[in-house]
């Protein structure tokens, strides 16, 4: 691609991402599937620019409205070229795929030479924090609020989890090094591998063969804390497309019974496909009508381990999905919290006496995490908190709950509490 045709494609992609109600990663996958002629190098460069623009969305919007421009994809791309790539008006005019209007040229001329951040920007704009999450995040992070928000604006490394049913971590590391890729074992997750450099996923044949999966270290640790053992009966209550189901089934080495439940049938179908590819066949997928589906009542006390990876605000995923912060949770925070409490109370019935319940979210908000667990324990005296270090000694220093954040731990934001049902 010439620089100009690449910019035209970026503008098309950005326009689609901004107009579609779906997450940016889903839109980009569909975009490139429909344009197989775009090679890996161009695709990588396009994604880099797209994600840089998404990470600066509020600040670019602030500059546009200061110049009296509407916040459109075209305006944002022009502002990015001037502020982020520091291109002058002549360069932008040469590169841009369509002629610049007088207003476009005026915009680029006005912005050229300025930094992306400006002293007059309100803090939520400078930190790219949406209004709906401002107060809960300030409460959660206190003096660390700005630093934690800044950490969500740094591109994350590529995290992989090895599928122990097909290979070992050492073997996978050797394979990556033979491909000339820098890869290191993760500090905390025993099956994790981190690739610090940006690479094309096409370079990883293990993804196709099911030997490795893409999974953030925090998500791997949540699955690890379930400690599902071969031969046990386990439920993944909010299994979705199966990120953690795959990890649990692999821990069980294909022995025992794992039920992957969700209210969303399409996600469970995707989960079943991924399980097949990974060579995991001890899993039953089950569509629930709601968290109080009759199936739950019929299987009261029937499972050794239950994982609830609850629907949540997703505030822990902003580093990987920078566009997610601009989509307020569909339900609103308080309805989401009420749903989490209902799911927790209902799914807890599945745990046998002496069994383990893990409540997890990819949120960093206290309301969805510690407060939710405290309310559950107060209402369910038959359950007790198992301190993290007792379940997995390498995490002892983290306190009673797993509470990960991008700044403090270099992972996505994840929460997990381990609860045991008294025998
Ligand atoms: C955070 S996502 C799960 C992600 C998944 N565990 C993974 O690791 O890929 C939460 C899931 O909860 C499901 N969910 C929402 N409401 C539910 C309910 N009432 N009962 C069970 N699952 C529900 C959603 O469909 C969604 O797939």
From TrEMBL:
Keywords: Methyltransferase, RNA-binding, S-adenosyl-L-methionine, Transferase. SUPFAM superfamilies: S-adenosyl-L-methionine-dependent methyltransferases (SSF53335). S-adenosyl-L-methionine binds at residues 262, 309. GO terms for biological process: RNA methylation. It comes from the Bacteria. GO terms for molecular function: RNA binding; RNA methyltransferase activity. The active site is at residue 362. Residues 148-422 form the SAM-dependent MTase RsmB/NOP-type domain. The keyword S-adenosyl-L-methionine applies. Belongs to the class I-like SAM-binding methyltransferase superfamily. RsmB/NOP family. This is Methyltransferase domain-containing protein. It comes from Stagnihabitans tardus.
């Amino acid at each position: 691609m010439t620089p100009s045709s690449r910019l035209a494609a970026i503008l098309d992609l950005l326009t689609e991402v901004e107009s579609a109600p779906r997450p940016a990663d889903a839109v980009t996958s569909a975009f490139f599937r429909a344009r197989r002629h775009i090679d890996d190098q161009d695709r990588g460069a396009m994604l880099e620019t797209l994600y840089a623009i998404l990470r600066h969305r509020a600040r670019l919007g602030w500059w546009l409205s200061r110049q009296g421009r509407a916040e459109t994809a075209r305006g944002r791309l022009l502002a990015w070229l001037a502020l982020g790539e520091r291109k002058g008006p002549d360069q932008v005019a040469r590169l841009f795929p369509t002629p610049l209007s007088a207003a476009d040229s005026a915009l680029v001329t006005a912005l050229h030479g300025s930094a992306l951040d400006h002293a007059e920007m309100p803090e939520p704009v400078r930190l790219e924090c949406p209004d709906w999450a401002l107060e809960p995040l300030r409460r959660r992070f206190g003096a660390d609020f700005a630093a934690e928000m800044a950490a969500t604006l740094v591109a994350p490394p590529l995290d992989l989890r090895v599928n122990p049913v097909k290979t070992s971590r050492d073997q996978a590391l050797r394979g990556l090094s033979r491909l000339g890729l820098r890869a290191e074992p993760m500090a905390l997750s025993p099956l994790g591998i981190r690739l610090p450099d940006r690479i094309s996923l096409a370079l990883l044949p293990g993804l196709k063969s099911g030997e490795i999966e893409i999974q953030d270290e925090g998500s791997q640790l949540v699955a690890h804390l379930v400690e599902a053992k071969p031969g046990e009966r386990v439920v993944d209550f909010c299994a979705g497309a199966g990120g953690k189901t795959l990890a649990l089934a692999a821990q069980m080495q294909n022995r025992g019974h794992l039920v992957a439940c969700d209210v969303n049938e399409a996600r469970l179908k995707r989960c079943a496909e991924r399980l097949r590819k990974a060579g995991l066949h001890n899993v039953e997928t089950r569509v629930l009508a709601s968290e109080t589906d009759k199936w739950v009542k019929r299987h009261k006390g029937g499972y050794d381990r239950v994982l609830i990876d609850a629907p949540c605000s997703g505030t822990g995923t902003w580093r990987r999905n920078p566009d997610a912060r601009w989509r307020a949770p569909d339900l609103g925070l308080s309805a989401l919290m009420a749903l989490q409490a209902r799911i927790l109370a209902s799914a807890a019935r599945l745990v046998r006496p002496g069994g383990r319940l893990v409540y997890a979210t990819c949120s960093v908000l206290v309301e969805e995490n510690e407060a939710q667990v405290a309310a559950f324990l107060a209402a369910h005296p038959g359950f007790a908190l198992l301190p993290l270090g007792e379940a997995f000694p390498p995490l002892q220093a983290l306190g009673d709950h797993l509470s990960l954040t991008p700044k403090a731990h270099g992972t996505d934001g994840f929460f997990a509490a381990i609860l045991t049902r008294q025998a």
